[in-house]
Specification:
about 300 residues; De-COase2_N; 2 domains; alpha/beta; 12 strands; Ornithine decarboxylase (Trinotate prediction); four-stranded parallel sheet; Lyase, Ornithine Decarboxylase, Chain A, domain 1; TIM Barrel; 7 helices; six-stranded mixed sheet
Length: about 300
Amino acid sequence: SASLILRIFVGATKALCPLGLKFGARIQDVPDLLACALELDLSVVGVSFHVGSGCFDASAYRTAITFAHEAFQIAKNLGISFSLLDLGGGYPGNFDTEEHFKFFDEVCDTINECLDELFPADSGVRIIAEPGRFYASSAFQLACVISSIRHIRSEDSNEEKISYYLNDGVYGSFNCTVFDHYIGEHYCLEDKFTLPISEETYSSVFWGPTCDNLDKILDNFRIRKLEIGDCVVFRNMGAYTMAASSNFNGFASPYILYYCSLADWNLLAPLLKDVFSSAFLSCDEVVDFFAEIDSIPVNTTAEAPESLD
């Protein structure tokens, strides 16, 4: 009695993680698949696609929706009435540059134009999407501490390369560098990445803490010398980071510190009233707490609290 969705193939070439090799039927195979579904008395109710996670090609959505419309027409010719279109996921969610804002607007405009043309509001088709990456791409910033440093002289030149060993790596939050093509955008809390151009820089590499040579976060970039204990912060962390982390070599996942500005909290508190009704603090008490600590500097070396109370 299950209702089935026909996944179609979209060959997006500008996606960070193309998914077409593993999932999706090519449009020329749709007639045979639907004929087989009819023969087996299966209920196929719609079409889905995924242009690839982190797709930076707005035209891929136009191609996908056009293919989906063609699949709808094939189904109609076979006497099958489709009622659902799933636009998939992979939508970019980093909005730290004007370029990212413009691209997302371009994606939205492209999708809306195609839907208005091929699946208008009166078509009776329910349209859904799966914007997981959109919400999670920049969910947090990851703070790592330099635990040790190694200086290496090049055999070909006298230049020094510095290896920095951090307390998180590709077996933890940085598995996104291996599986999701994340490029570590980082800065140091001591502002050592924003020093004048005259400051000498060195070829550098960030390593994770495990025994594996593959546990490399970032290589062949230049910064000035950092120190043991310095805190390096990585921006735009979220999608496919901690969700796939492990405790390999005994290194635990990072401690999570949730932060919300007082202005945002005042906006969200009424919506979360029921959530906090049985918590340690009431909404009013939490607001008072934020107001009280607003001027207190953060101690970045503090240990994680043992309990919420």
